[in-house]
């Protein structure tokens, strides 16, 4: 149960980081957006939305 709970927490944190990246992108801060995308990919390496955003930059 502990590993499953930890995996869900990592996924939620990855989603939060992608949302922060969107926010920074719309505010015009590309460096912070890339930081949050990389942080998201550290938690979930196969997170397709983060990989897509990183590919756009």
TrEMBL record:
This is TPR repeat-containing protein. It comes from Methanocaldococcus fervens (strain DSM 4213 / JCM 15782 / AG86) (Methanococcus fervens).
